[in-house]
Amino acid sequence: MKIPADLRYAESHEWVRVEDDGVVVGVTDFAQDEMGDIVFAELPTIGAEYEKGEGMAVIESVKAVSDIYAPIGGKVVAINESLNDSPELVNDDCYGEGWLVKLAPSNSEELNTLLSAAEYGTQLESEA
Amino acid sequence: MAARVTPLQAKHEVLGARFTEFGGWEMPVQYSGVVDEHLTVRQACGLFDLSHMGEINIVGPMALDFVQYVMSNDVHKLAPGRAQYTLLCNESGGIIDDLLVYRHADCVTLAVNASNTGKDLEWLRSLADKPPYRGSVDIVNVGEERAILAVQGPKAPKAMQAVGLDVTDLSYMSFRLMGDDGQMMVSRTGYTGEIGYEIYLPKEKANHWWDRFMGVAGTVGIKPVGLGARDTLRLEMGYTLYGNDIDESTNPWEAGIGWAVKLGKDFIGRASLAESKAKGLERRLVGFQVEGRGIARSGYSITVNGQVRGRVTSGSISPSLNVPIGLAYMDEAVSQEGTAIEVIIRGRPVTARIVQVPFMPSRVKDVVVTE
Predict the structure, then answer these.
(1) B306 vs B244: CA distance, rounded Å
(2) Which of A65, B102, B109, B222 has the smallest C-beta neighbourhood within 10 Å, fewest atoms?
(3) Of the candidates A6, A49, A56, A4, which has an alpha carbon nearest to the alpha carbon of residue A30?
(4) Are B344 and B197 in the same domain?
(5) What is the CATH number of domain A8-106?
(6) Any idea what the CATH number is for the domain that residue B322 is in?
(7) Same structural domain for residues B148 and B45?
(8) What integer pLDDT is reported at residue B1 of this predicted model?
(9) Minimal Cα–Cα distance from B35 to chain A, Å?
């Protein structure tokens, strides 16, 4: 299970990458593997605002519907439109081409509440 | 209560299966992935462990009369060596279970839904305990000692040949007892819409036969398939799933399985079923395809012109067609093929249309061509 060291993680299995113009959010390798074949992604509209922990997207596999929660509060500044036609990118490259949403954080301090790669790895072990 | 496991549990674990609880059993839901497994069955051959399903023998001098009295279909029209889809109904016509009856010379074997096995046994035993059947009919739960494999897909006949089971002459819904002691019942039946076989066998033999199929997997093109793909395969055929599309509150005509009810004979539930047939349908189980963006799931409401007129009972993406499909009960007045409907997905109406089922052609009756 890949857990890149340079990302931060939410307990609900989203990852966050801090970039100059916002934070990119996706789902972790563990999450995409658990869901199985992803066949549909419903992403938020640009400009929508979410609080930390609020459902902001939905990903569906053949069998299941999964809510994706905002790992930190913020405003949506970009969405991965490739997922409309190719939702399987989330399976194929969850930390790259399969990203979901880019947020402009409402409070950057919230980044400090996220888990490090090591801490997220420990959480996965305790869930296993 | 801890979930039960089949005799093949260790094989599934080695194959890296993911498990789910179904009908009180811990069952493999997927191995390589639902879409891959689904397409394997459509294009090559899938091997399923269905040992969770119930297997019940009805024996005794009045066995056939008893079956005729408790089931909706006409078992007297069934020749030995043939199987029949039938319904077990209660007095008010509610569907207790849907099942296959396998007719032997003077007794029958039933293949029943895993989640209903206990309920079926209780019901059948209560009926067999009354005159005139008392003492002349025995309900034997053989499922505990048996396993079930299914081999499904265009390459299923080749797979059977490759493991030494010569069944290419079996026509759809026929079966034969095989093995040294005749303890293996092999039928040309299935729940996928493909040419396929189901193998009912003693549980001690399950690993041997699983290994034989997996031993020719590379040359024939066989992959293990879990319950995830089993569900999408049956959905593409419009086959009902007990607990989703049918239950004790549905009647066979609205569910599209009225052809398995023969009102010309006497059986339990007949009076109620005749009455509901005479009354006409209030709702109908239909197939639909989602045209907008979204996947319909069981329980979602369906509207027509803004009014709620139906409810989804099964829904997923069709891996073969790559579009969202489903089954739904619709008010009779708005159940015609071609009707534009909206599925309410997370509060928003998404356009869909009632379409013909099966969603793609069934190949169950295709003639087996041997190489």
Answers:
(1) 25
(2) A65
(3) A4
(4) no
(5) 2.40.50.100
(6) 2.40.30.110
(7) yes
(8) 63
(9) 7
Give the list of residues 6+ apart from residue B279 with CB closer than 8 angstroms, or none. none
Q: Are strands B45-49 and B222-224 parallel, antiparallel or unpaired?
A: parallel
Q: In B326-361, which positions are buried (b, 16+ CB within 10 angstroms) versus exposed (e)?
A: bbbbbbeebbeeebebbbbbeeebbebebbebebee
Same-domain status, B45 and B148: yes
Is the model more confident about B140 or about A1?
A: B140
Residue ranges covered by each domain of chain A: 8-106
To which residue do tokens 């090591």 refer? A118
Element (H, E) at B156: helix B156-162
For A62, which of B228, B293, B346 is closest by C-beta distance?
B228
| Residue type (1 letter), A37 | D
- What does the alpha-carbon distance between residue B112 and residue B56 come to, in Å, rounded to a whole number? 8
User: Is there a domain that residue B26 lies in?
Assistant: yes
pLDDT tens by residue, A45-98: 999 999 999 999 999 999 899 999 999 999 999 999 999 999 999 999 999 999
CA atoms within 13 A on the CB side of B185: 24
CA distances from A79 to A10, A33, A42, A60, B293 (A): 19, 22, 10, 17, 16
Chain A: which residues have CB within 8 Å of chain B?
36-37, 39-40, 42, 58, 60-63, 65, 84
How many CA atoms are closer than 13 Å to the CA of A84, on its beta-carbon side? 8
- ipTM value, please give it: 0.91
Chain A's closest residue to B346, CA to CA, is A58
In a domain, B119, yes or no: yes
Reduce the DSSP state of residue A52 to 3 states and report it: coil
Domain hosting B212: range is 4-49+144-237
In what side-by-side order are the strands of the sheet with A14-19? A8-9, A14-19, A22-27, A101-105, A74-79, A49-50
CB contact under 8 A, A62 and B346: no
Same domain, yes or no: B59 and B34: no
Same structural domain, B17 and B152: yes
Q: Report which residue type is found at B349.
A: P
Facing A60 at nearest CB: one of B33, B35, B295: B295
- pLDDT(A38) > 90: yes
Is pLDDT of A128 > 90? no
Find the helix packing angle between B63-70 and B117-128, rounded to 10°.
120
Chain segment B115-166, per-residue pLDDT in tens = 999 999 999 999 999 999 999 999 999 999 999 999 999 999 999 999 999 8
Neighbours of B174 (CB within 10 A): 17
- Beta-carbon contacts of B134 under 8 Å, excluding residues fewer than 6 positions away, are B128
Tokens of B232: 């999408």
